[in-house]
Write a structure and sequence with these properties.
The chain is an alpha/beta fold. The protein folds into 2 domains: about 5-180 and about 375-390, 3-Layer(aba) Sandwich (Rossmann fold); about 185-375, Rossmann fold, CATH 3.40.50. The protein has helices at about 15-30, 45-70, 85-95, 110-120, 140-150, 160-170, 195-200, 225-235, 255-265, 280-285, 300-310, 320-325, 340-355, 355-375, 375-390; strands at about 5-10, 35-40, 75-80, 95-100, 120-125, 155, 175-180, 210-215, 245-250, 270-275, 290, 310-315, 330. The strands form 2 sheets. A 7-stranded parallel sheet has the order 3-2-1-4-5-6-7, sandwiched between helices. It has a 6-stranded parallel sheet with strand order 10-9-8-11-12-13, with helices on both faces. The chain is globular and about 65 Å long. The model has no long low-confidence stretch (mean pLDDT about 90).
Length: about 400
């Protein structure tokens, strides 16, 4: 008899979407019956705005279309899901296994509890663990620790996330394992020069310009303000003659960042691309990848840039140091008042990398080699499927 797996995801945005998609398609291809539940909490509407949320929904629908092609017919959309929704969905699906794909430890609290009450085995995948507990849900922590104890497996996407789950959220020291996320083979292909030329011509970026790319939502936590601070200083240096920036993402601060860029007089050098379904083409068009975030799990966008062979500079937060290793360049975390150091490091790195193509190539190849070793999607799927099979 075919085993039925229900993948319950909240929030269904950002890096969770491609992760969920890869896991769903792999399990369906192996013959499991799959049901996918996507929850978009009400708070995300405020974060992204109505236009941004429409882009999020369209991107999720694109993934749904691809999933149907591999035989996944059961998709459930929830918006602002409540505990009653989890009870109803799980009762109707009656799965043999529940996988919860979390944007934070307290996400998907209700479906985990329903699984416990119904005796359904479940796996928890934690994609992002902040180093500080949210103060608004202290009553949930004791129950959360019991949920981790009841889980058949707890997967973290980095060693740092696993450490924080144990330190802050009650995960037992002898439980939990790390499975690094992975990206499909398309990101490991050599850059396409035709794509590079087409996009640069379309966006008025010279062929010989050094293009720095960032893919992240337009939010304070992603550190665009630190790039703007660096840009203001770089304008006074020789590196500015060739530097351009392309930023992919949407969010409530998009208009504010655009206005700040305009006031700084650099609108011709900073391209706001909006939400992209696939950043692969822009990785082909770019020379550098920046991610000066205040908080991350282990970002897929960084993995993709490394796989493509771009030199990466990213903040030393959460799983980023273990992902980047001794390749690329770690930036001082801008948290706790260190943002001036982050800005100065961005200035220095961009000056060095802009002026030395051989150095960019050398650093980028080191990043690619590490991605080949750590961030192949096939490895992620193999390790996760092994856990699923051991439970079923």
């Amino acid at each position: 008899m075919t085993k039925h797996i229900l993948l319950y995801a909240s929030p269904a945005i950002g890096g969770l979407l491609p992760y969920n998609h890869a896991l769903l398609c792999a399990l369906a291809t192996l013959g499991y019956q799959m049901t996918y539940v996507q929850d978009i909490p009400d708070a995300l509407v405020e974060l992204f705005g109505s236009a941004g949320m429409e882009r999020v929904r369209l991107r999720a629908k694109w993934f749904e279309t691809q999933q149907r092609q591999v035989g996944i017919r059961q998709h459930v959309w929830l918006e602002g899901a409540k505990a009653a929704d989890a009870e109803r969905v799980i009762a109707e699906a009656n799965p043999d296994l529940l996988i919860v794909s979390n944007g934070g430890p307290v996400a998907n609290f209700a479906p985990k509890q329903v699984a416990i009450d119904r005796g359904i085995p479940f796996i928890v995948v934690e994609h992002l663990v902040h180093p500080v507990k949210p103060k608004e849900v202290p009553e949930a922590y004791v129950a959360l620790a019991k949920q981790y104890e009841a889980a058949k497996a707890v997967i973290a996407v980095s060693q740092d996330n696993l450490r924080l789950l144990r330190k802050l959220f009650g995960l037992a020291e002898d439980k939990g394992q790390v499975i690094y996320c992975g990206r499909p083979s398309t990101y490991f292909q050599p850059p396409d020069s035709a794509v590079r030329s087409r996009l640069r011509q379309q966006w008025n970026i010279p062929d010989d310009a050094v293009l720095s790319f960032t893919a992240a939502r337009m939010d304070i936590i992603k550190g665009y303000q630190y790039q703007i601070g660096a840009i203001k200083q770089l304008k006074q240096t020789p590196a500015w003659e060739k530097l351009y920036f392309a930023w992919a993402g949407t969010g409530t601060l998009a208009d504010q960042f655009q206005q700040t860029v305009k006031q700084a007089g650099v609108s011709d050098r900073v391209k706001f691309l909006g939400e992209l379904d696939d950043i692969n083409d822009w990785l082909d068009a770019s020379d550098i990848f920046l991610l000066p975030s205040e908080s991350e799990g282990l970002p897929l966008a960084m993995m993709e840039a490394m796989a493509k062979g771009l030199p990466v500079a990213a903040s030393a937060v959460s799983g980023v140091p273990e992902g980047l290793g001794d390749t690329g360049q770690l930036l001082t975390s801008p948290m706790f008042g260190n943002f001036q150091s982050t800005i100065q490091e961005l200035v220095g790195i961009l000056k060095d990398w802009t002026g030395d193509a051989a150095l960019r190539q050398q650093v980028g190849q080191a990043c690619k080699q590490r991605a080949e070793k750590m961030f192949r999607e096939e490895r992620m799927i193999e390790e996760t499927v092994e856990i699923v099979r051991s439970i079923l």
